[in-house]
Amino acid sequence: MSIWESLAVFAAGVGAGTINTIVGSGTLITFPVLLATGLPPVTANVSNTLGLVPGSISGAIGYRKELKGQRARIMRLGAVSLVGGLGGAILLLTLPSDSFNTIVPVLIGLALVLVVLQPRLAAALRARREAAGGDTGHPDGGPVLLTGMLLSSAYGGYFGAAQGVLYLGLMGLLLHEDLQRTNAVKNVVAALVNGVAAVFFLFVADFDWTAVVLIAVGSTLGGQIGAKVGRRLPPTVLRAVIVAVGIIAIVQLLLR
């Protein structure tokens, strides 16, 4: 890897760490850059996954204030997400990518619809539950959210582009929390999924360790930047950023 390629990978890591903390989809920045340096797709993918783990942890630390009071929720969602992430990592090395490439743009599109309509849908659900006897629903989303997080995490362990958009769409609809606190949980879950996938890959896949180190350092810096920027965004602006990133993700995936 030349000095210019190294600088490009590092800059992509900073950008990915920043956007992952705010929304997700940082893989759509780093993965193409790694491919441009000449790495094979699977090597680029697993190197990217391992490199982004420190950035995910950095972003979660940056959002520690919004994590207060959510330990039980994180434990519950984190447990199913770990299972899903490991399953996705196994799928990466055993299945052809065509099947996932077909469904991924659809999943991201559905997530964007959930993000945009979340305030109205959540209000309608609360009104219906209260009319049915004052039941406000499961405080942690119940089996529906657990299932959704399991499947989204399987996708995250497989590739990970826009997994944050999927998480935010699901949690925004099914949790009674503001978007910033939901985003904080998303950062922790993403760190867990990337982490378990990376540990699995360590034993069965080949890495480019130069790429891993460059992305790790860059994404750690980006995670802190993203936490500061994301926390200052009003919910409406944050939703707009999520939608913009999601649309870019769909277009890029369709053009691959």
UniProtKB/TrEMBL annotation:
Main location: membrane
Cited InterPro entries: TM_pro_TauE-like, TSUP
Membrane-crossing residue ranges in chain numbering: 7-34, 46-63, 75-96, 102-123, 144-168, 188-217, 237-255
Entry keywords, A to Z: Cell membrane, Membrane, Transmembrane, Transmembrane helix, Transport
Recorded topology in the membrane: Multi-pass membrane protein
Intracellular or extracellular location(s): Cell membrane
Keyword hit for Transport: yes
Superkingdom assignment: Bacteria
Family from the record: Belongs to the 4-toluene sulfonate uptake permease (TSUP) (TC 2.A.102) family.
Name of protein: Probable membrane transporter protein
